[in-house]
Amino acid sequence: MLTGKQKRFLRAKAHHLKPIFQVGKGGVGENMIKQIADALEARELIKVSVLQNCEEDRHVVAEQLARGAELVQVIGNTIVLYKESKENKQIVLPR
């Protein structure tokens, strides 16, 4: 689990990122979860945008996407996810 200080740090880092995935009418599929896991391994911190036509609540979508990752924040229709990379660790969290 992330501390409040670590979440603040990650939110500040994520501020400048553009969403690289969009959840639309189809909702969250296994394929999307796998792609997001791969992106998290490569980047550690990503944004996902929930489109207007998505039938599920954004918080439900966030829970589904955060399996195996940390949910940093849900703000508006944007979800911020973090997972420490095994291969190429870039982000050093504050204690």
From TrEMBL:
<dbReference type="Pfam" id="PF01985">
    <property type="entry name" value="CRS1_YhbY"/>
</dbReference>
<feature type="domain" description="CRM">
    <location>
        <begin position="1"/>
        <end position="94"/>
    </location>
</feature>
<keyword id="KW-0694">RNA-binding</keyword>
<dbReference type="InterPro" id="IPR051925">
    <property type="entry name" value="RNA-binding_domain"/>
</dbReference>
<dbReference type="GO" id="GO:0003723">
    <property type="term" value="F:RNA binding"/>
</dbReference>
<dbReference type="InterPro" id="IPR035920">
    <property type="entry name" value="YhbY-like_sf"/>
</dbReference>
<dbReference type="InterPro" id="IPR017924">
    <property type="entry name" value="RNA-binding_YhbY"/>
</dbReference>
<dbReference type="InterPro" id="IPR001890">
    <property type="entry name" value="RNA-binding_CRM"/>
</dbReference>
<protein>
    <submittedName>
        <fullName>RNA-binding protein</fullName>
    </submittedName>
</protein>
